[in-house]
Design goal:
heterodimer, A: alpha+beta, 4-stranded antiparallel sheet, 4 strands, 46% helix, B: 182 residues, alpha+beta, 4 helices
Chain lengths: 191, 182
């Protein structure tokens, strides 16, 4: 009985010794896990890195130095459209619910387009009811580029611009073209 | 509700042809964050100025409820979302009763981290308002400004202030237009 107790005490002692030896490692692991909790969500981190290393053609997207969910974007007007030659500034924000909720995007450069209003708000299905968590910042940016190439005047946000596009497509596109040219100046303006 | 198309679907999340990154399974368990990302670490989600203001604008437009407050952009093409109009319907049984008060609210480039400038456009006699209509930046919600506060918070607090014992019986200049006359 005594021998068994002694053996038990010895085992316990060994265990304590081992635990003591590895204490640093255990603590480090715990600290590391706590640290990870406060970090940028993996998905956002990956998307940000990919936007930096392989930006979509004609698009620049940079995270704000003070807010990893906020991106400053410059999109070149697609070639062969009235917006060609213009550089359009946009801002993008990943809300708390991202990716279950879509990103929020707004033009900061004025643009003459039936699906974009005077405040730069964009009417695009993937930013609303057609959003899916399988989509990404990159997909959204490409969709906006596609929207610049193919305006949808039948489905307008700005009815005046849409009427102009329907009744006088050439005139409306010309106005968009002037906008693209002056857009270079607009994009210099700081807000 | 009208919306544009969503053509470029070729870059959906799952398969990413031509990426230089290794597939997730080959990544180390705790990859070192890049220097640029490490500097932007933060626990709290901060809604940037303009998206916050767009939310405020939408709320103001939806507010058709029987409210005593209203607010909206002063210019409908103000892409900087800086100048706002607000109105307060004077509370009943006070010196402000039966009057509509118009205000101009300026949300500067650092709003909502920094308080807005608030000014009555017509004469009003209130302890927290300068003779020129400027609401004192040291008063109540402006003096103790918090990022969560909104234009609505300010208008609501001003209307409460009208009801406070210090203000409710103050003699008023006869400049604000009477309600129902417009």
């Amino acid at each position: 009985m005594l021998a068994q107790l002694r053996q038990l005490a010895c085992l316990l002692g060994q265990f304590v010794e081992i635990a003591w030896t590895y204490m640093d490692t255990i603590l480090a692991t715990l600290r590391c896990q706590a640290g990870n909790m406060a970090q940028i969500p993996k998905r956002i981190e990956k998307e940000t890195q990919k936007l930096e290393t392989e930006p979509p053609p004609g698009v620049q997207a940079k995270p704000d130095p003070a807010n990893y969910r906020y991106f400053h974007i410059v999109m070149a007007g697609p070639t062969g459209t009235p917006y060609e030659g213009g550089n359009y500034k946009m801002e993008l924000f990943l809300p708390e619910g991202y990716p279950m909720e879509p990103p929020k995007v707004r033009f900061l450069t004025k643009i003459y387009h039936p699906n974009i209003d005077k405040l730069g708000r964009i009417c695009l299905d993937v930013l609303k009811d057609k959003w899916s968590p399988a989509l990404q910042i990159r997909t959204v940016l490409l969709s906006i580029q596609a929207l610049l190439s193919t305006p949808e005047p039948s489905d307008p946000l700005d009815t005046n611009v849409a009427d102009h596009f329907i009744k006088d497509r050439a005139g409306a596109e010309l106005q968009g073209l002037f906008g693209a040219l002056s857009g270079c100046c607009w994009s210099e303006k700081r807000f | 509700m009208g919306c544009g198309n969503s053509k470029p679907q070729e870059e959906a999340a799952s398969p990413q042809p031509g990426t230089s990154q290794p597939p997730p399974s080959q990544q180390p368990v705790v990859p070192a964050p890049t220097a640029s990302l490490a500097t932007v670490r933060s626990d709290k989600v901060i809604v940037p100025r303009s998206f916050r203001l767009l939310d405020e604008l939408e709320k103001g437009q939806k507010c058709e409820r029987a409210s005593h407050l209203s607010w909206g952009l002063a210019y409908d093409d103000d892409i900087t979302l800086t100048t706002w109009n607000g109105t307060i319907f004077g509370p009943i049984d006070t010196a402000y009763d039966n009057r509509i008060y118009s205000l101009v609210i300026v949300t500067g480039p650092s709003y909502p981290d920094v308080l807005p400038e608030v000014r009555f456009t017509a004469g009003i006699n209130m302890n927290c308002v300068e003779p020129d209509g400027q609401v004192k930046p040291t008063w109540g919600v402006l003096g103790n400004w918090k990022r969560e506060y909104t234009i609505e918070t300010v208008l609501d607090a001003l209307r409460r202030e009208m009801c406070s014992p210090n203000n409710r019986h103050l003699a008023q200049p006869d400049t604000a237009p009477p309600a129902g006359n417009s």
